[in-house]
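Q: I'm building a small set of examples for a reading group on sequence design. Run inverse folding on the following structure and report the sequence directly after it, with nothing in between.
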């Protein structure tokens, strides 16, 4: 589980970096959508680690709240980009 969390968590940043260097608006939105999916997966792994008592409640709450904030930011950027793309 920890390896999956590491993979999905680091993929978020990598896809955001790729979005910054996107070749088009559609490519930008696509890369951020992938980052959003990875954020959702990261949230899943965090919940599993907490439920398995591998991650403390306090540790979970701290990290998971950041994950939720990131999901909100990515969703907002994607929606704004799609509106501006019309």
């Amino acid at each position: 589980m920890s390896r999956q969390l590491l993979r999905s968590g680091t993929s978020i940043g990598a896809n955001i970096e790729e979005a910054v260097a996107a070749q088009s608006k559609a490519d930008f939105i696509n890369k951020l959508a992938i980052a959003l999916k990875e954020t959702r997966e990261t949230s899943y792994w965090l919940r599993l680690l907490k439920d398995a008592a591998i991650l403390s409640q306090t540790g979970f709450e701290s990290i998971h709240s950041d994950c939720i904030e990131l999901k909100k930011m990515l969703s907002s950027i994607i929606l704004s980009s799609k509106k501006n793309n019309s």
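Residues 57-85 form the longest helix (29 residues).
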